[in-house]
Amino acid sequence: MKPRSTATRELVNLDGLWRFSLDRDRWDLEAAVPASYNDLFVDSAIRDHVGWVWYQRQVRVPRGWSGEDIILRVDAATHQGRIYVDDVLVAEHVGGYTPFEADITAHVSAGQEFRLTIGVNNELTNTTIPPGTITVTQDGRRRQTYLHDFYNYAGLARSVWLYSVPAVHVQDITVVTGLDASTGTVEYAVRTSAPAPVRVRVLDATGTEVAAADGAGGTLRIPDVTPWRPGAAYLYDLLVEVLDGDRVVDSYTEPFGVRTVAVRGTEFLINGEPFYFTGFGKHEDTPVRGKGHDNAYLVHDFQLMDWIGANSFRTSHYPYAEEVMEFADRHGIVVIDETAAVGLNLAVQGGLTGVPPQPTFSPETFGEATRDAHAQAIRELIARDKNHPSVVMWCIANEPSSHEDGAREYFEPLVELTRKLDPTRPVCYAAVIFATHENDRIADLFDVLCINRYYGWYVATGDLATAEMYLEHDLRGWAARHGKPIMMSEYGADTMPGLHAVWDTPWTEEYQQAYLEMNHRVFDRIDAFIGEHVWNFADFQTSHGIHRVDGNKKGVFTRDRRPKAAAHALRARWKPLAGRKPPRDLGRDT
């Protein structure tokens, strides 16, 4: 559970400047937390470092915490983290985008200082999520390569916390909501650190109690409920109290929204009403900070999404900071929540390099150990984000080789696990262009078909008439074969701001706009279509390579959030929709 300050808990934020070192022998540098470390310094040896780095600071435990359990929490360490109290290793975690913590009660004392050291390792291998490969150059330098098209920023990109809890305390809360006419139903389950009586109360936005019950599990009913809706968020608080007789020994408040999500035929339903996705694939990516969470960018990005008429986004290609999810909850933005499983596709590497690819799914490439890491990533994502009303769908992978031998054997257990952990939300993956309705091995396992396509950019470059025919044939094939809701989870064209032409010239602002308009004509002719997520919200940094010049330029906003011409065109299309499907276009404007 996210640390919160309550009547029985206290919280200290440890963000700021920490001592920083590559080898723990020299501590002459300082690094900001939260931030990726790569772009903070001018030394390329730090930016390109492969392996462990170290953060260190002194921490004083508040003197009033005597008799409390003391917990150290790291919101994210990309991609492996270790926590040391003085010189004692107290926790270790693999996975760069989900939190981990350590109970350090036995190692510290209230009112006293301790030395906190956190190691962070950015290495990616064939058994990590996301995967990668480490090689050694002729001069002995370690070199990291990976299969995803965004920079492998590393470090403590999110906050670090010290917090206290009573000896008997709430450890986990699960909330599942429903609608019964005008009544909201709230199924809840509470886990405590030791057996103890539990009392729960539901408070509305004014703080008024609207439902209550005793016990660690049950169902509450809220008369005349105000549902959580896209664009019209309404949150209740579930106040959970652990009791010792009449005394409250621990309290924790979990915000939640009452809403339902379902797939019916080719429709995606929120609260029983058809919903049409407009928005983006995004990235946690800003200048200097890299993937470091920044509340100023958080507010501004959501303002830009509101301005442009976006009602949703996908957390491509990893779980975002919890502050982002909470902001979406409070402001009625719909989220497709994705694991960090990007790059499970060796065919893409072959397409870019010309080197014949290896089989993607095999003991030597991505096998059982990779799938185990993938399963753990799914467990941690759902455990962290299960109570967010903004999250309407789990995306368990981006552009895997779903057309290859072994794909079904790899993914079927993961889909089963996802449904077991959360049977209330639809499950999807984002299909790569090599996977078609004719050769894909796994689409029938999922609820919604999320398709990534770049006709007019990577295929039929500069020929939008041909691209339009290819795209329509492709989407109609998926619709005919599966009879499921379809959305475009990625479509876009790289664009240099300020580059113009009167012709269909790739990289110009006019071409990006014409490319999007072509896609929209096709979308509006497909009955089963439920949404459009442009790739990307903003330009972002990528690894070195001749395919990119200072990063990926498919954003409709620049990296510093200035609109390109396409942003104004999207605003004209999306603002009038307000979550409704566009009128079907029966003609062919080609």
From TrEMBL:
Residues 261-577 form the Glycoside hydrolase family 2 catalytic domain. It holds the Pfam family Glyco_hydro_2_N. One of its GO terms (molecular function) is carbohydrate binding. One of its GO terms (biological process) is carbohydrate metabolic process. Keywords: Glycosidase, Hydrolase. Its EC number is 3.2.1.31. InterPro entries: Beta-gal/glucu_dom_sf, Galactose-bd-like_sf, GH, Glyco_hydro_2, Glyco_hydro_2_cat, Glyco_hydro_2_CS, Glyco_hydro_2_N, Ig-like_fold. It is an enzyme of class 3 (hydrolase). Residues 37-166 form the Glycosyl hydrolases family 2 sugar binding domain. The keyword Transmembrane does not apply. Coiled coil: none annotated. Residues 168-259 form the Glycoside hydrolase family 2 immunoglobulin-like beta-sandwich domain. Belongs to the glycosyl hydrolase 2 family. This is Beta-glucuronidase. The gene is uidA.
